[in-house]
Hints:
The complex is a heterodimer.
Chain A: H1 12-15, E1 18-21, H2 23-26, H3 37-42, H4 44-50, E2 54-57, E3 61-62, E4 74-78, H5 85-97, E5 101-107, H6 116-123, E6 135-136, E7 157-160, E8 165-168, H7 183-198, E9 203-207, H8 224-240, E10 245-248, H9 254-257, E11 269-271, H10 275-285, H11 289-296, E12 306-310, E13 317-318, H12 324-334, E14 341-342, E15 345-346, H13 350-353, H14 358-370, E16 374-378, H15 436-441, H16 446-458, H17 462-465, E17 467-470, E18 478-487, E19 494-503, E20 509-513, E21 522-525, E22 540-544, E23 549-555, H18 557-561
Parallel strand pairs in A: 1-2, 1-16, 2-5, 5-9, 9-10, 10-11, 11-12, 12-16
Antiparallel strand pairs in A: 3-4, 6-8, 7-8, 13-15, 14-15, 17-18, 18-19, 19-23, 20-22, 21-23
Helix pairs in contact in A: 7-8, 10-11, 14-16
Chain B: H1 4-20, E1 32-44, E2 49-59, E3 65-75, E4 90-96, E5 99-105, H2 110-120, E6 129-131, E7 138-143, E8 147-152, E9 154-155, H3 161-171, E10 180-186, E11 189-196, E12 202-203, H4 204-218, H5 230-251, E13 254-255, H6 258-271, E14 275-276, E15 279-280, H7 283-294, E16 301-302, E17 314-317, E18 320-323, H8 334-337, H9 343-364, H10 371-394, H11 406-431, H12 437-447
Antiparallel strand pairs in B: 1-2, 2-3, 3-5, 3-9, 4-5, 6-7, 7-8, 8-11, 10-11, 12-17, 13-16, 14-15, 17-18
Helix pairs in contact in B: 3-5, 4-9, 5-10, 6-7, 6-11, 7-11, 9-10, 9-11, 11-12
Amino acid sequence: MASPIDFSDERWFQKAVFYEVAVRGFADANGDGTGDLKGLTDKLDYLEWLGVDCLWLLPFYQSPLRDGGYDIADFVTVLPAYGDVKDAATLIEESHRRGIRIIADMVMNHTSDAHPWFQESRRDRTNPKADWYVWSDDDTRWSEARVIFVDTETSNWTWDASREQYYWHRFFHHQPDLNYDNPEVAEAMLDTVRFWLDLGLDGFRLDAVPYLYERDGTNGENLAETHRYLRRLRATVDAEFPGRVMLAEANQWPSDVVDYFGAGDECHMCFHFPLMPRMFMAVRREQRYPITEILAQTPEIPDGCQWGIFLRNHDELTLEMVSDEERDYMYTEYAKDPQMKRNVGIARRLFPLIDNDRRVAELFHALLFSMPGSPVLYYGDEIGMGDNIYLGDRDGVRTPMQWTPDRNAGFSTADFARLYLPPLMDPVYGYQAINVEAGMRNPSSFLHWVQRMLHVRKQHAVFGQGTFEVLNAENPSVLAYLRRLSTPGPEGGGEDLVLCVNNLSRFAQPVELMLATLADKVPIELIGRVPFPALGELPYFVTLPPYGFYWFNLVDPDGALS
Amino acid sequence: MIAEAALARGIGHLLPDFLLRQRWYGAGERQLEGVKLVELEILRTDEPLLAWVLAEARFATGDPSTYQVLVGLRPLAATERFLEGKGRAFLGDLDTDAGPALAYDALVDPELCLALLRHVYPEDPVSLVRPLNLEQSNTSIVYDERLIMKVFRRLNEGRNPDVEVTAALARVGFEHISPPVVDWTYKGRDLAVVREFLVGASDGWQLALTSLRDLYDRRLDPAQSGGDFAPECRRLGEITGAMHVALAEAFGTAGGDPAAWAEAMHAHLARVPSDTEGATFDAVGVAERYDAVAELDDVGQAIRVHGDYHLGQTMRADAGWFVLDFEGEPQLPVAERRLPSSPLRDVAGMLRSFHYAAQSGLAERADEVDEELLGLARAWEDRAAGAFLRGYLQADGVDALLPADPAARTAVLDAFVLSKAVYEVGYELANRPDWARIPLSAVDRLVGTSP
């Protein structure tokens, strides 16, 4: 059967809405208490209905699962609990049949210490893989490199008793860094990528890319050597698998992150990390400056690239990109219980962070869907799932997807005790109250609202590909911007123009927008299709309800009549 | 359409009545003796005509004032919509070769605003005009949302302080202002200045009220409340400190003169009634604070100051805080505004502004005010002031401008805060007696009659 996907569209990712899903937590087809690829395949109809364009799978590879699967013990084997490579091929095929692409996490920087490569490498100093990892007699080397997981690790070096040397690791001590200075390693990782693209995967989310190389006198982040390798990887992908996408996780300032786009010859996409905490800050402060400030500091990106933007994901709400003072503020605002803090961030899902306020959730999503970048949703946020901050590590935001009010949230038929993590059962966020079935049945649910918004967004490529211009507004609580995209067509084509007006305050707010250059255009509200009074020479006056927002399509007066 | 001489004659007759109706007339109760048209130039001969006029007004008492008036002229038959409801802007009817015409304030006419900018700054073509509705002693017009022209209405001798100070600050590299793009002058006087418009900015007063509305609604401790304003105050303090260091560099410093400062404060205190019924304050206690300053050896440096520093003179934009309007205290003659003073005078102005903001926020919900809200208002103000001062003292080089002894710093700052509050008492009693309680409570706080 032909796929509804246009595989010749190499810029699909600029218009796509991504949906991040943990295979382990989504759906359990074989009843062993852990989600699997078959279970996910069974739920594709739901994802198609929701309207997402691309799934992003958290790692599903062979792993001892000491770091949620980011500790990969074999790159080309599926974790048996999740299925096998054949199941992955079926998932990809079924997904494509529904018009949904799939990308997956790939950890380039390190492996699990259980990986056979490392087991061989640690044996002695002369074996064939002796130089596949970064070994040293000196654990003071590269002391400029910061320790990232400050809650659990004290050094980037760990002593290996069998080889009697230290090995280098930028993350957990059970995740040794691969040695990219060894050409065999560099080549082996290209082969890993080839294996999955060959199977039909539409690309990768590259985990922890800034740290591939180490150099004396540097902090080991964003080195020229790392960029050179990414260019090599991109060239390989473009030549052998055109249209597949590389999405980088580089938790850095936007001015540093843009380097990962290269000259359009490294990654297609990068996450915009600092935007997310600032969206939270802006809404709590009821003023736009936290957002506009970071957007003003965000450089232009090369043609053919795109930001990935998100509200929440499987990691903590990272606060590395805010000042100390702002971090304290965010902790007071959003992490009232010390258990909520993890590393330099806050481990919570969206709804608990915003006190379960539906209006705020809608505003946040309206921002996410209309700001420059491709939105990435996190599984469960579309139904308003909560978290369990008393589970260890980052498991609190990785509990089972809540499908029904039935046993185990409809996630699994296993005995409750066998579940990889208990589903939420508290009275507010528990599966009896919050689940997909209830959301589907209730036309006014948040789930239906998200589905509707995704549908509206899909009609306008301008949200993904248009230019972005913040409008002048004297009211600091209002964030208004124009998205603009030239559209091809007869007589030189036209222009798709969307005006977004957001009220970041919990009080109703007025705003006057200076839109005289667009005089005579008629704003059509995109969700209800209601025409508003035409723009004129005078400032355009808009009133917004608490946390309210409008998306207006600005059309020519004759266009409004048709 | 009309000869220059005839136009001058006609406008000359209309001017006295016109000037008296303008908000920027600013001569108060003084008896207007006469108005003389001293200069006229036709800037645009096509219809609508644009004429530039300087008029000198003489009064029964005090010095004469010079006004700048931009006159537009359109045939009476062709009335335009933009003139509807703008009676205040009309000068009156004039006879021209082409029949009767209406003379009016050209700054309400978008077409003539464009013509004026083309005259002043022909290098940069613009197409859109938006007048800002902030009539003070000048009129501001925004062009294409990227340039702003400030047209001075009442002219002073020599340079306008705002143009003078912003140009000097730009010269020494202080970036938190909107520097002049072009300056329109006549015989050494500033007529108008064109600047870059600060896009996406809101003024500090609006931001403070945004924070306060959140605070009063949630009734949480200010440090715990989402709309916490303290981090912004700290940044604003830093910018203020940097501004003073830049002002010192641009205009030089002189040793502060405690005796002169105290004398000026005393003189002013003597003019404000302290015994108005329901609005009394401890004038003796205030005077003691002024005396304490006079006795200090080291009161820090005297520099050119902003002079009218409050939240409404600051703008938050994406690139941080910006400071506007260096005209100085509008009630003072220009020569006095130029006199060096303590940088702590500006700091005092901002601290008073925090107090006014907290109280204005309360006034918005007067029906709900109780002990708890009053306490929150005070806590917000203290937190804002504390953060502002911390930021201020962090600015590089600001130390050298201040008294070395912390106790002396406090004494000087308190005296300027008191002096500002006493000024406010006088102003409120004359204009808004209900508001006098705000500065009165500040005076009471500092002279120790209330906590």
